[in-house]
């Protein structure tokens, strides 16, 4: 897939700004990689990133929006400050950094690289604003806990992304894919409560919570026959009882459900909750369902995606055809919630090489990916992707009519009024669940 970009007069500024910081950015990445921290516990990463950004002239808000390991770093040119004081609109573009790790395997999703990609992109846009004293602002949002409950979700609700024309981020992978299918995902803890009894002497006195959980598990297996090929349901039993000779009075499991869009996801959620409640009813147990996360799918903003593809192609990236990209199975991310709120993109970039092919030996969430995420090749790929984001961000700020066209594409792609309407729809579905399941 070959794409040629339109000339960007700030290309050299972006390239120089990032290349001049390559050593310090690599040091940041390796520090975070060597100190993996789980979601909402990213104390070290939060400190080194905010200290670095402050040293580079950003106005930094640590522990932003009452989230201990979130931050916001902003820069406005003097021309932007003057324009705002005069009552003029000043456009702003945003980027995201992630920096949480996975339990057991560390940075097996390369969030050390995502951290510096966001920093590099923001640095480059700042350099353009500063050098040419253009009217514009750049904001980097440090977003914790993507791997668990989704730090971007409360940040959206509390205003971290308000006032942005677009928000961009990138993600390491075993291939360069702009048009990936990132699915909507929900996660729930399902708990069944029964009555304990001796499994041999008086089993009839018991109410078997494990039976309820197994009934639900089997029901999900049958449901899969009627779900779309783009939907997924997976789960584990987290508690099945204490001893074989005791009827379990408590059993629990964790389940995740995914779909290609919000509408399919809402239907799948409704079907699952009906199974969970029916399993309780059929066994005489009670059930409690606790929502742990709710990520939306990532719709493609055609203009942002095409511009990023063009710039990274100019930088040497080779892409599969769009059809081949869309055929690749994807995961899920809370960036989906962001791009349902305002225009944005979430491309994947290859940390293995530039051949345009999928490397099946290096998959996200594997020990091998953890090792590759600290290599020089991965670092160079990260900066290449960051340059593509930064150049796209510059176009959002300064190319006449571009941000307006991006917004129009967003409104066409996300026609339900953004994240607020979608959230209300999902909340309405939750309220339909019988039996006081405790989902929220």
UniProtKB/TrEMBL annotation:
InterPro entries, per database record: Amidohydrolase, Bact_exopeptidase_dim_dom, Peptidase_M20, Peptidase_M20/M20A_hydrolases, Peptidase_M20_dimer, Xaa-Arg_dipeptidase
Similarity comment: Belongs to the peptidase M20A family.
Ranges for domain Peptidase M20 dimerisation: 188-281
Xref: Gene3D superfamilies: 3.30.70.360, Zn peptidases
Pfam families: M20_dimer, Peptidase_M20
Descriptive protein name: Peptidase M20 domain-containing protein 2
SUPFAM superfamilies: Bacterial exopeptidase dimerisation domain, Zn-dependent exopeptidases
